[in-house]
Amino acid sequence: MPAEHRLILKHADEPGYTPDIECYLKHGGYEVLKKALAIQPKTLADGKTLSGPEQIREDVKLSGLRGRGGAGFSCGLKWSFVDRKSGKPIYLICNADESEPGTFKDRQIIYKDPHQLIEGMIIACYANDVKLAYIYIRGEFVEGAKILNRALAEARKMNCLGKNILGSGYDLEIWVHRGAGAYICGEETGLIESLEGKRAYPRIKPPYFPAILGLYMCPTIVNNVETLCDIKHIMQMGGSEFAKLGTPNNTGTRIVSVSGHVQKPGYYEIQVGHATIGQLINDPAFGGGLRAGRKLKAIIPGGSSAKVFKAGEKFKLKKKSPDGKDIEQEVDMLDLPYDFDSLMAAGSMSGSGAIIVLDDSTDIVEALANISEFYAHESCGQCTPCREGSLWMSKALHRLTHGEGRKQDADYLIRIADNIPGGRTICAFGEACSWPVQSFVGKFKDEFIAKGAADEEKRGAKVDERKPVTRAVEELV
Ligand SMILES: Cc1cc2nc3c(=O)[nH]c(=O)nc-3n(C[C@H](O)[C@H](O)[C@H](O)COP(=O)(O)O)c2cc1C
Ligand code: SF4
After folding, report:
1. Cβ contact 114:66 at 8 Å
2. CB half-sphere exposure, 475, CA atoms < 13 A
3. What is the C-alpha separation between 424 and 463, in angstroms, rounded?
4. Which ligand 1 atom sits nearest the alpha carbon of residue 73?
C-alpha cells in the first residue's frame, strides 16, 4: 500500500506545532545549519581541497535533487552554472510565487513551518557564497509575507541570520518581497525584473541566464520553496541517503497537490515515483476516490499547463527487465508512477506537482475555456504569437461555450496552438498556453466538433454571419 512519506511536511500538521522559532528549535531547528557552517575543508585523493561550501554543492549534486518549481531541472547542475569569477555579488531568490493553477504546496510550508524554508535558504546561500537573498512571495499571500517577516526577525534575533551567523564569520541577509500579482511573476526572469521594480517582462535566454546575468545583471540562483527545503534535508542526511528516497533520477520526496473531483482534495508528500496517478486519486491515504456514482474523465497531471490525460489512455514506456534489458511496456494512465520521467515519457509533465481530477460531469470544452481565459489574461504581451494566440484561442473557446461555435473551431484551435511554441516566444509561457489546447482538443476532438455543430444547427447559419475582419484574420492563421 502506498503511503505518505513526510520529510518536508513532517511537523507541519502536528497538533501544537507552531511557526515560531521556539517550536522550531524544540524540534531540532537550525542544528543542520550549525552542521553546515562547521564543515571543514577536505583534501581529496588527487590533492585538490574542497571548502565547506564546495562540499555542500557536491552533496546536492550527489542527491540528484530536481527543482520542484516546474521544469524539474537538476539543482546541483543549476548551481554549477553560477558565474563565480565575475567579481559581482551572487544573489539567491526563493520563488514563492506559487501561481500555477492547481498548486497549493509551497504555501503549506510558508504558513506552517517558515523556519524550515529559512534554514534551507541559509544553507543554500552559504554553499553559494551569497550575502543577500530574497523571498519573492505571491502578492496575494499577505499573511504568508507577515509570517515570513516575523520568522526572519526571530532568526536574526537568534543570530541565525545577519552578521557573523552563529559565530561562523558568515554574513547573510534575507528580505521578503511581495509579488506584483501576475502569473508571469513566477517565471524566473520575469520575477527578477519584478524584483528590480519593473513590470514582470521575462528576459530572453541567451543572454539573460540568471546564473550569469540575473538580478541587477549579477549571477543569481532562483529556486522554488520546496527545492530549498530539500537542501536542509540533503545536508542533514547526506546526498547519497537522500538519493535513496524516490526512484533513480527522480530522487527525494515531492508534495503533490490533488484537487478537483475527488473525495479528499489535499496535499500529499510521497517518495517520488512511489505512488501511481491512480493511487493518488483513489487510495484512502490520498484523494480517496471519485465522488459517488461518478467515473473518471480526465486528469491534468502537473498544474494547468500540463497536457491532459484521458481516462483509459495507454502509453508505451521503456523499463528495465529483471535481467537489465530495456523493454517496452504498455501502461495505463492510472498506473503511471508519479515522477518526472514517466510523465514526460507519456507526453506530459509533473510540472508543479499538481493533479487536477475531472470526472464525467465535466464539460471538457468549458474546462478548456476556463484554462484558456486564464492564459489569455496572464500573457505579458511581449511576444506576438503568445499575446495574440492565447487571446484568439480564448475567444474561440468563449464562442464555443456561448452558443456561437463552429464545427471547424476544433481545427482552428489546434492551428493556433501549434503555431505558438517552437522557439517563437521569449519564455515557456508560450508552450504553457498551447499544451492544454493541443491536448484537450486533440484527445476530446469529438466533443469540440459536436458543440460547434450543435451551435451551427441552432443558429441555422454558418461562419459567414461573423464580422468580415474576424474571418479574414482567422483565415490567415
Ligand atoms: C509562466 C511560468 C510561471 C512559473 N511560475 C512559477 C512559480 O509560481 N513558482 C516556481 O517555483 N516556479 C515557477 N516557474 C518556474 C521558474 O521559472 C523556475 O524555473 C523555478 O522557480 C526554478 O526553481 P527550481 O529549479 O527549484 O524548480 C514558472 C515558470 C513559468 C514559465
Ligand atoms: S511567451 Fe508570453 S508570457 Fe512569455 S514573454 Fe512572451 S508574451 Fe510574455
Report:
1. no
2. 9
3. 30
4. 25
- Pick the ligand that lies closest to the CA of residue 140: 1
Q: Are 329 and 319 in contact (CB under 8 A)?
A: yes
Q: Which of 187, 380, 431, 434 has the most ligand 2 atoms within 8 A of CB, as the residue to mutate?
A: 380
Q: pLDDT digits over 309-346, tens only? A: 999 999 998 877 788 888 899 999 999 999 999 999 99
Shortest-distance Cα residue to atom 30 of ligand 1: 187
- The total of other beta-carbon atoms located within 10 Å of residue 384's CB is 11
Phi-psi region at 255: left, alpha or beta (left = phi > 0; alpha = psi -120 to 50) = beta
Look up residue 270 and give its DSSP letter.
Answer: E
Cell 525584473, residue located: 193
Which residues is 358 bridged to in the sheet? 298
| Closest approach atom of ligand 2 to CA 386 | 2
pLDDT at 467: 57
Pocket of ligand 1 from Cβ distances under 6 Å:
67-71, 73, 78, 95, 97-100, 183-184, 186-188, 222-224, 227, 427-429, 432
Q: What is the pLDDT of residues 359-403, one digit of tens each?
A: 999 999 999 999 999 999 999 999 999 999 999 999 999 999 999
* Phi and psi, residue 430, nearest 5°: -55, -50
Q: Which residue has the cell 529559512?
A: 118
Give the pLDDT confidence of 279-292 residue by residue, as tens digits.
999 999 999 999 99
Number of Cβ within 10 Å of residue 386's Cβ equals 26
Q: Dump pLDDT digits (tens) for 191-247.
A: 999 999 999 999 999 999 999 999 999 999 999 999 999 999 999 999 999 999 999
- Please count the CA atoms within 13 angstroms of the CA of 199 that sit on its side-chain side: 6
- CA angle, 13 as apex, 12 and 18 as ends, to 5°? 60
Q: Is 329 helix (H, G, I), strand (E, B) or coil?
A: strand
Contacts of 91 (CB under 8 A, 6+ apart): 130, 132, 133, 134, 214, 215, 216, 218, 219, 220, 221
Closest CA to 128 of 175, 92, 75: 92
Q: Which residue in the block uniquely carries the three cell numbers 460531469?
A: 361
